[in-house]
Write a structure and sequence with these properties.
The complex is a heterodimer of chains A (317) and B (505). In chain A, a hairpin with a 3-residue loop joins strand 2 and strand 3. Chain A is globular and about 60 Å long. Chain A starts with a helix and ends with a helix. In chain A, the strands form two sheets. In chain A, strands 1-4 form a two-stranded antiparallel ribbon. Chain A has a two-stranded antiparallel sheet with strand order 2-3. Chain A has 317 residues and is mainly alpha-helical. Chain A has a domain of 207 residues. Chain A contains 13 helices and four strands. In chain A, helix 12 packs antiparallel against helix 13. In chain B, the strands form five sheets. In chain B, strands 6-9-10-3-11-12 form a six-stranded mixed sheet, sandwiched between helices. In chain B, strands 18-19-20-15-21-22 form a six-stranded mixed sheet, with helices on both faces. Chain B has a four-stranded antiparallel sheet with strand order 2-1-4-5, with helices on one face. Chain B has 505 residues and is α/β, with parallel strands linked by helices. The chains are: A mainly alpha (317), B alpha/beta (505). Chains A and B meet through helix 7, helix 8 and helix 9 of A and helix 10 and helix 11 of B.
């Protein structure tokens, strides 16, 4: 397939990165280190899945970082209402529903504005980003600790199945598999490609463009909500200031993975590879002891190089 | 009608043995072409014959593999657009290249704005643009301060032509300039071109419309499959001969009006109204083609959009097969069996970055993918049926949409709806930029569908097409049908009189 062929240079680039970091950090390719790497990627990859849908239809969602913080705050707040001393499945379910519900509301708002008003998604989600961040800070200005007895919630981000495979990685793989089926196998996915490729033509073909757009933004927000719970669980607390810049990492993963900013082009496997490359870069540079200022510079250059190569290849085709 | 001035000794432009290959495909193979000063030289050929490649070499967009370009007898190397510009070559491409957010005047003087020290002299620019527009007889533009995005496609094309003529042009190339112009706009353009010819400009004129070429050109060159078939003076050829040269076979008549066997009323409109549609009533029967004849700007496209649920209806009712239907969205229209083939094939019809199969299968996703998991066999069958139904020439269903000629793109756009026959097919400018061969195919198939009972509403700027294909012709002006004529009494003259408001007798 064409899409698979386009991933080959990215896979080569990733292997080159692995070799370089292995030369600098002898234990880089060790099993535990690799498992850590995948675990660290999972939050970004889950968000980037929704982001890929948004970019694919010619939109964007800048609010994901702030929604992630808000979802964490809401979820942990519900968990700790009345300072409980026991663990209750009911309360946990309620907390998760509250968190995902808030996320869905933001998605609904973003999607409604994108579909029904002429406001550009960049501006809509810039606004909702600020609203979400403000709401998170209103609920609590300081981090809220996850009640220590809530093993199940803490397991979401920290447990390992069989002592090896982290739960977030499982969640990520399940969601990405579903996300890939949705995009690459369903009618809905087909419609997203049509909308991104030519919005007017999609409309003239009888596709309910507005409805699809609404669903995309809700999906993106709900996926972000799941990521927000994993993130809060990993931090053992909900931090209203967390998630800053997560939207940029998600956009980077989607774009490095071959999603076109003009819409209509992009895949979930490609996005995952993009997330893996960004994650490898983050971890490798850290472990190699590169100063954080230089990390930013290198990451920026890698993103530019990846997108430049992709654009050039497209022009040749 | 036009008398050719005596050709000068050395031709203004001479192309000699121009060859160009793209990968394994030979687009041009040793093509010779001459253009004299003060001559309109028509370039004819089906899509894919090599016209565009030839023009792009002249304009410095492509470079010839072999062959030479001579201007005034001196060999020139055209390495880029800047070279072509310096040599006085101006090309007006089929795809318009205006900045929609700028005004008419700003577009005309884009890149050569009058002013001093970097300051824009807006007044001088607007005055110059105003003069130019007046001189070229482009009254449709009205105000050079208008933003281009507010203008119709036809007006935008005029702006494009004005831009090319704003500086001294020696060689002007027009690629299908009249494909979206009304009759009167076409007349204006021809007057302008005759004027430029008299001033000694050499004009290369590309068109599929033979009548235009016969009227306008001094000479005609026909290309076929990258070869020059021949060059003749207009006085020495007739239309049939040209068509034979183009397609390599004789097409006696590419219109196939189906036999009139009108059945029950398929679509009835009663008092349709919105901003652009000002009270439209008509009845369209099964097995009938109702042509909508109107000038550009009369609101024909808006009527089509309203019938298809793109534009909102303020008042009036629509009946499909005698049952009242509320069409508020394209989905409603499709559910009622009404299909619109939009005028802007690439902008509104097709997803050009996708494959042919994607575009053909898109409307029927519900059938080949009902529960989330695609049935590739069924999808393939739908795609195959669509390809076969219209005889679309493709290298394979997974080839890119952009690999197809305009004619085949149009076939894709129509044939994809034939999986389940629509009750009513609305065709808006179905032959714009479509070559003669594909046009014939298209009309033959439409005729067959109509004979099998489909109702067709045909909207076209090409009056000859409307008159030859329709059973009845609705004359459309200012958002209203002012008269409906049976085919027998709808002659060019009567329809033109009604359209332009000229009084008969």
């Amino acid at each position: 397939m064409n899409a698979a062929k386009r991933m080959i240079p990215l896979i080569i680039a990733w292997i080159v990165l692995l070799i370089l970091f292995r030369m600098k950090v002898p234990a880089f390719l060790a099993r535990d280190n690799m498992i850590d790497l995948v675990q660290q990627i999972s939050v970004n990859a889950i968000i980037a899945c929704g982001m890929t849908y948004c970019i694919l239809i010619g939109g964007i969602d800048l609010s994901v970082g702030a929604v992630l913080a808000l979802v964490g705050t809401v979820t942990v707040s519900v968990l700790s209402i009345g300072n409980p001393t026991d663990q209750s499945i009911l309360r946990l379910a309620l907390a998760i529903c509250a968190g995902l519900g808030v996320a869905a509301l933001f998605g609904l708002f973003n999607g409604f504005c994108a579909a029904k008003t002429k406001m550009p998604p960049f501006i809509i989600t810039l606004g909702s980003m600020l609203v979400a961040r403000g709401l998170a800070l209103r609920i609590n200005e300081t981090p809220i600790r996850v009640p220590a007895q809530d093993d199940l919630f803490l397991a979401i981000g920290n447990a390992r199945i069989g002592g090896i495979v982290p739960v977030p990685v499982i969640i990520m793989l399940v969601l990405l598999a579903l996300g890939a089926v949705l995009l690459h196998r369903t009618r809905f996915g087909q419609h997203l490609y049509a909308i991104g490729g030519n919005r007017e033509a999609a409309r003239f073909t009888g596709i309910a463009v507005g409805r699809a757009e609404l669903i995309v933004y809700i999906l993106c927000a709900v996926l972000t909500g799941v990521a927000g719970m994993i993130h809060a669980s990993q931090l053992y607390s909900a931090e209203p200031n967390s998630g800053q810049g997560f939207e940029l990492n998600a956009i980077a993963a989607a774009v490095v993975g071959g999603t076109s900013f003009t819409g209509g082009v992009g895949t979930i496997p490609g996005m995952l590879l993009g997330a893996v490359i960004i994650g490898t870069l983050d971890k490798g540079l850290n472990q190699a002891g590169v100063h954080f200022s230089l990390q930013y510079i290198l990451k920026g250059l890698v993103i530019l190089a990846a997108v430049y190569m992709d654009v050039r290849r497209k022009r040749q085709a | 009608m036009s008398s050719a001035p005596a050709p000068a000794a050395a031709p203004l432009l001479a192309l000699r043995g121009v060859t160009k290959r793209f990968g394994g495909v030979t687009a041009l193979d040793g093509v010779d072409f001459d253009l004299c000063a003060g001559e309109i030289h028509a370039l004819l050929g089906e899509n894919g014959a090599g016209k565009s490649t030839l023009i792009k070499i002249l304009g410095g967009i492509h470079r010839a593999d072999t062959g030479t370009v001579l201007i005034d007898g001196a060999q020139q190397s055209v390495r880029g657009v800047a070279d072509a510009d310096r040599l006085g070559v101006r090309i007006i491409h089929q795809e318009l290249s205006l900045a929609p957010n700028l005004s008419v005047a700003e577009n005309i003087y884009l890149g050569r704005e009058p002013g001093r020290w970097g300051l824009l002299d807006r007044r001088a620019m607007e005055d110059a643009a105003e003069n130019l527009i007046t001189r070229l007889g482009m009254s449709e533009i009205r105000d050079v301060r208008r933003t281009v995005s507010e203008l119709s496609v036809a007006s935008r094309q005029l702006v494009e032509i004005a831009r090319a003529l704003a500086t001294q042009a020696r060689i002007l190339v027009l690629d299908e300039p009249t494909s979206s112009l009304s009759e009167s706009e076409t007349e204006n353009l021809f007057a302008t071109l005759n004027h430029l010819r008299a001033q000694g400009v050499g004009i290369i004129y590309i068109s599929h419309r033979l009548e235009e070429i016969m009227r306008l050109a001094d000479r005609v060159t026909v290309l076929r499959d990258g070869h020059t078939v021949g060059t003749r003076s207009i006085g020495e050829v007739d239309q049939h001969e040209l068509v034979r040269w183009m397609v390599g076979r004789e097409i006696v008549d590419y219109f196939h009006r189906p036999d009139a066997r009108p059945g029950d009323v398929a679509l009835e409109a009663r008092g349709l109204r919105n901003e652009k549609v000002r009270g439209v009533d008509f009845k369209l029967r099964h097995g009938e083609i109702l042509g909508i004849a109107g000038l550009v700007g009369a609101g024909r496209t808006e009527l089509a959009r309203t019938l298809f649920g793109i534009d909102k209806l303020h008042a009036g009712t629509l009946l499909v097969d005698g049952k009242e239907v509320a069409i508020r969205t394209p989905q409603d229209a499709l559910a009622a069996g009404v299909v619109l083939i939009p005028e802007d094939r690439q902008g509104q019809g097709l997803v050009m970055i996708q494959t042919i199969a994607f575009n053909l299968a898109l409307p029927w996703a519900k059938e080949w993918n009902p529960f989330g998991l695609p049935d590739h066999g069924k999808r393939g069958a739908i795609v195959d049926r669509a390809i076969n139904a219209f005889g679309i020439k493709i290298s394979g269903p997974d080839a890119g949409m952009d690999s197809l000629s305009g004619g085949n793109q149009q076939k894709v756009l129509v044939s994809r709806w034939m999986e389940h026959r629509p009750r009513v097919l609305i065709l808006d400018e179905p032959t714009r930029g479509v070559d003669v061969g594909a046009r014939e195919d298209m009309f033959r198939i439409i005729a067959r569908l109509v004979e099998e009972g489909m109702a067709v509403l045909l909207i076209s700027s090409d009056l000859v097409e409307v008159l030859n294909m329709s059973h009845r012709v609705a004359v459309y002006r200012d958002g209203r049908i002012i008269e409906t004529l049976p085919a027998a009494s709808a002659t060019m003259e009567t329809v033109m009189q009604l359209l332009t408001g000229a009084q008969a007798q």
